[in-house]
């Protein structure tokens, strides 16, 4: 990148919505039936405006629906010249509606995106409910993101993201020191999400496997983490047949990065594995040209795992965490692997290749086998593995497969962080449909049946996880990359899913085993 944008600064102020020294203040409004009602932070502003806030908002067309942002000029009634009222929906959400904490997270992000160009914005969205602090801060900081480093000249209409986000502590009932601890935690995670988003958004010619491995190693070293990088020669010497097969068609050789966080005392060991296909053409089984440019995001799992390790290093949970990140570029060429090949994987299993576009599971199987050698108690793997995930669950809900109890913990963690996930089965018939006549297993259904396509990916990976290890496969094909318009705190392009869930699960294991 030639001009990376800086992350928003996150601070705490004892000021309130009326007297904060900021360019704009964010308050909340609800929709109760046919009427608007005041939400967090709004009462003080309403009083400063002589009780006319709801009337002004109504005249400007506000209806209080979740995520709607209406800006009001205060004309000197408050220190801030602008108040941004963000809709929070009904005070009492209907059953099945978006979780209130996620509603606030999205609202904060939408408000910050609507205030691009402002230098300093105050958040009055948190009232006396302390559980809202983290989601509001997360939404705001994650919403203050853009990726314009490759533009040689910014257009006159460009407005940079908000540079400083100020949590206004006046109405929270919590002290500045207590709130600062919360902001520090949010900043650690948000910085990691930003790192992952930047990697994923980087054009694939600038982030081929050797470059990605070098940047990952640098980020880990900067976080005082232990790093080991296996280059192509080391992979050959180690017998990493799956990673090597996928990388055969590219002049940019495959890599495997191992990153370790080891606290002074711990009871459990967590392994994180992330798919790092820096660009996926499909190889010999080449993809259609339409939308192939988005295949730069096929390393989203790897980006999130590496960046999550930097957040874990800052948060210092009492659990050992080791990341295993295989990286390759799947290209068609005279040296590329072929349908019909039989590949000897790391650990000795033999895989019959039927489709070179089912490459992610090949590199992941090697990385999982390597991770198992370190005897983790839990193994979490995440990848943009199948288009079947999008067909089954859409673009915002990740698919979960693996050990039942661990899946429940991950699903709950995803709900807390606003990264929804749904457990899926691994039926015996899907597994048996991948039996090979000439090798140990095929990559895909041996009869090319695409039914249960997402489940085929999970079933293949399950063959490389021995009994006794709690494990989970998180398919993020849709949620990891937003090809549509921004919404809430989610920008167009890389989202950073499921980084926050990974960190949440690690912290949960540190607390509860």
Automatic annotation (TrEMBL):
GO terms for molecular function: aminopeptidase activity. Keywords: Aminopeptidase, Cytoplasm, Hydrolase, Manganese, Metal-binding, Protease. The active site is at residues 287, 361. Its EC number is 3.4.11.1, 3.4.11.10. Mn(2+) 2 binds at residues 275, 280, 298, 359. Its cofactor is Mn(2+). Binds 2 manganese ions per subunit. Residues 355-362 form the Cytosol aminopeptidase domain. Mn(2+) 1 binds at residues 280, 357, 359. It catalyses: Release of an N-terminal amino acid, preferentially leucine, but not glutamic or aspartic acids; Release of an N-terminal amino acid, Xaa-|-Yaa-, in which Xaa is preferably Leu, but may be other amino acids including Pro although not Arg or Lys, and Yaa may be Pro. Amino acid amides and methyl esters are also readily hydrolyzed, but rates on arylamides are exceedingly low. It comes from the Bacteria. It is found in: Cytoplasm. Belongs to the peptidase M17 family. HAMAP family: Cytosol_peptidase_M17 (MF_00181). Presumably involved in the processing and regular turnover of intracellular proteins. Catalyzes the removal of unsubstituted N-terminal amino acids from various peptides. This is Probable cytosol aminopeptidase. The gene is pepA.
